[in-house]
Every structure is written in structure tokens, then in C-alpha cells.
Amino acid sequence: MVLFSGHRSHRICFCCWLMILLTLNGYAGLVSAATSVDPPGKVEPKTLSLLIGSNGTITCRLSEPKSSEIWFYKENSERGIYQPSDEIQIIDQYTAALIIQNATEQKSWYQCMVDKQGIGLSQLHVGKSPQNVTDFSCIVYDYEYMQCSFTRPDNMLMTEYELEYRFANDNSKHKCKLSEDPEQFQKLHCNITNYLPIRDKYLFTLIGNNAGGRKTQKFVINNHKIVIPSPLELRVQNIT
Predict the structure, then answer these.
(1) What is the per-residue pLDDT across 174-198, written as a single tens digit (0 to 9) for each?
(2) Signal among the record's keywords (predicted)?
(3) What is the rounded CA–CA span in Å between residue 219 and residue 216?
(4) Considering only CA atoms, which of 100, 94, 39, 92 is closest in space to residue 74?
């Protein structure tokens, strides 16, 4: 009986240690969750880019278990989004997400809040995939050099452009570095560095990239039809 009791005692002790271990592991998990972010918390992503009509989320994670107190503030419209709301989803006791559905065109800042304390900001860009450039043109100045330019279409999504060109009957491609017009932000310029006046046609490829997609356009420029001659110098002499 004593041996049996001792065996039973060991079993009880083992079960107790197992329960303690599980409890400690659970507690460690809670501590880990709480300390996974620096106080007071963080917002992700810092920038969210969406196409018009699409969906997205902005997540706010706290260092304390107060997700039920999270609300969001849309700064440019001074609009508060409070719980309970279909626009806020509780993920766990530390985390809540702002749900963006059927997004409309905008460039906005969203602030995650707990009471009157700001936790972090996320910038939302909602726009279109790259749009057609409609005013691409080039000018040749007295057969000495060529300059091309175009206007970036309005878009809430930041769009990067690349321009390259080649000559007719020549597959060698040349990059053309784009620069912004200091007086017109939407205007981009490119100077053809290896301009060849004897070439008839320049074949340009313009590529636009943003978070919504990619667009490629082709332009053919006839070198001899865009020449601006240098101004004539006239000298008047008094002949008597």
C-alpha cells in the first residue's frame, strides 16, 4: 500500500508540475505578446496604397491589453471612428484593425488612438493604375540637341516613370534620365545626350509603374519635323 501511495503521489506531483508549466508558458505567451512592441504601440503599414474600389486594413497593436479602447482618427476630414463599428475589427486583446472597404480616391492620414493618446500614423493612398500620357513631345534646337517632355497624369498613387529610346532599324536601347521641372512639378524633362541629327526617327518607350500596375507607351518622333532653327542675327549698318 505504501508503494502504491508513493507511486500515486509521484503521479500527482507530476500532474501539478505539468499544470504549473503550462500556466507559466501561457503567462510567458501573454508577456511576450505585451512586450512585442514598444510602448505605447505601433501602426502598420506606415503607408498603404490601394486601387479605387479595393479593400485594405490598417493594424494598430498596443503594448497593453486595451484593444477594446482603440479608435481611429482620419486627420484630413477630422472624422473619428469609434467602437463598436463595422470599420473596426478586434484581432486580440492587444490588436485592432481599421477595415477599409470599396476605397474611394484619396490621400489621407489615419491616426490610431486610445482615449486621447495617439499611438501611430498610417498614410493611405487610393488611386489608379498608371494612366496614359497624352502630351509627350520633343524639340530639336538647331540640330544640336533634343529635349523631350511630358506631364504626369493626376493620380493619388505615386507613379515612377522610365524613358528609353532607340533609332529606327537599330535595336540598341538608350536610357533617358528624367528630371522634374522646377516650376511645374507635374512636368518631366529629358535631354537626349547622344543626339544624332542625321537620324530620321527616334522611337521612345515610356514605362509607368505604381502600386496598382504597369503601363507601357510607344512614341515615334520624326527628328526633322521638330527642329527649331537658331534665331537670325541681324545687323543694321548706316550706309551713306
Answers:
(1) 999 999 988 888 999 999 988 999 9
(2) yes
(3) 10
(4) 100
CATH topology of domain 41-127: Immunoglobulin-like (2.60.40)
**Residue 43: closest CA among 60, 56, 57:** 60
pLDDT at 231 over 80: no
Amino acid of residue 89: Q
Reply yes or no on whether the pLDDT at 15 is more than 50.
no
Question: What is the pTM assigned to this prediction?
Answer: 0.74
Indicate whether 157 pLDDT > 60: yes
The cell numbers describing 129, all together, are 493604375
- Percent of the chain residues past pLDDT 70, beyond the cut: 81
Q: Do domains 41-127 and 137-228 have the same CATH topology?
A: yes
Q: Where are the domains of the chain?
A: 41-127, 137-228
Q: Which CATH architecture has domain 137-228?
A: Sandwich (2.60)
- Give the per-residue SS3 of 133-147: CCCCEEEEECCCEEE
User: 43-52, 165-174, 215-224: which has the minimum mean pLDDT?
Assistant: 165-174
Grid cell listed for 136: 509627350
